[in-house]
């Protein structure tokens, strides 16, 4: 390029090297932009034993330490999908908890009974997270699906105890004896539910091959989470029932009031 001839206004030709110094440099073949800002694409593969969420957290930590002001990281592809799915899953958790609570309150005709059952759910979710941590897993999209499933299963175990305790109270027993008898008589179906669900989840935990990561993540939430969660249910449900139901109406109050009103209407006719 230094020998390229340039034509001067006088008509003479001179080489380019006489007017400029050429230095070879390495540059990008194309210029990328992200949101109107200059960007550089960086791709990486995850090493064995490192999940995407952990890798993203580490990248953010390094970026905060090394990148100057005005520069940052924008995730694309699978990393961006993970962030979107996590934010959407939090909303799913909230909606699932609200729907379960409303259904329980309507079924029991008592907010207190619904609160007793729902108070055990956070402990069950914590147990599931503990199981994921012990097994070396991560809180990914598939394990979050298992957590939503766990909310419904835990609520069912609480229903078995609270519903029977309410029936015993309607029969005339006090709170303490009702919850003791309910726990003693309902521990078998609760344990049967737990054991059958855990054994049903074992094939997911032991699965291999294509797509095994998704099945294993859901399986550990069901097997480990439900196992620990059942223990929490058996111990915490009687405690919460004793503390909270004393502030609520007696079981069957609405039904008795409706029966009384019907009797009055019949007598008036």
UniProtKB/TrEMBL annotation:
<protein>
    <submittedName>
        <fullName>AcrB/AcrD/AcrF family protein</fullName>
    </submittedName>
</protein>
<keyword id="KW-0812">Transmembrane</keyword>
<feature type="transmembrane region" description="Helical">
    <location>
        <begin position="115"/>
        <end position="135"/>
    </location>
</feature>
<dbReference type="InterPro" id="IPR027463">
    <property type="entry name" value="AcrB_DN_DC_subdom"/>
</dbReference>
<feature type="transmembrane region" description="Helical">
    <location>
        <begin position="185"/>
        <end position="206"/>
    </location>
</feature>
<dbReference type="GO" id="GO:0005886">
    <property type="term" value="C:plasma membrane"/>
</dbReference>
<feature type="transmembrane region" description="Helical">
    <location>
        <begin position="218"/>
        <end position="241"/>
    </location>
</feature>
<feature type="transmembrane region" description="Helical">
    <location>
        <begin position="141"/>
        <end position="164"/>
    </location>
</feature>
<dbReference type="GO" id="GO:0042910">
    <property type="term" value="F:xenobiotic transmembrane transporter activity"/>
</dbReference>
<keyword id="KW-0472">Membrane</keyword>
<dbReference type="Pfam" id="PF00873">
    <property type="entry name" value="ACR_tran"/>
</dbReference>
<keyword id="KW-1133">Transmembrane helix</keyword>
<feature type="transmembrane region" description="Helical">
    <location>
        <begin position="88"/>
        <end position="108"/>
    </location>
</feature>
<dbReference type="InterPro" id="IPR001036">
    <property type="entry name" value="Acrflvin-R"/>
</dbReference>
């Amino acid at each position: 390029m230094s020998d390229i001839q340039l034509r001067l206004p006088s008509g003479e030709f001179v080489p380019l090297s006489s007017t400029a110094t050429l230095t070879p440099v390495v540059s990008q073949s194309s210029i990328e932009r992200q949101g109107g800002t200059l960007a550089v694409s960086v791709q990486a593969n995850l090493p064995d034993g490192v999940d995407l969420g952990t890798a993203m957290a580490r990248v953010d930590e390094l970026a905060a330490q090394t990148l100057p002001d005005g520069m940052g990281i924008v995730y694309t592809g699978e990393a961006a999908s993970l962030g979107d799915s996590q934010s959407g899953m939090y909303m799913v958790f909230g909606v699932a908890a609200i729907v379960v609570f409303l259904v329980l309150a309507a079924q029991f005709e008592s907010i207190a009974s619904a609160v007793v059952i729902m108070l055990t759910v956070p402990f069950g979710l914590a147990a599931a997270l503990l199981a994921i941590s012990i097994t070396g897993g991560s809180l990914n999209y598939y394990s979050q699906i298992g957590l939503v499933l766990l909310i419904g299963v835990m609520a069912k175990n609480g229903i078995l105890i609270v519903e029977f305790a309410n029936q015993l109270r309607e029969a005339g027993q006090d709170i303490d004896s009702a919850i003791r008898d309910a726990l003693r008589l309902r521990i078998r179906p609760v344990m049967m539910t737990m054991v059958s669900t855990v054994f049903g989840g074992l094939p997911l935990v032991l699965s291999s091959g294509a797509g095994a990561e998704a099945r294993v993540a859901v399986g550990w939430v069901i097997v480990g989470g439900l196992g620990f969660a059942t223990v929490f249910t058996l111990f915490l449900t009687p405690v919460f029932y004793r503390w909270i139901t004393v502030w609520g109406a007696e079981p069957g109050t609405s039904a008795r009031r409706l029966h009384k009103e019907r009797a009055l209407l019949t007598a008036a006719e």
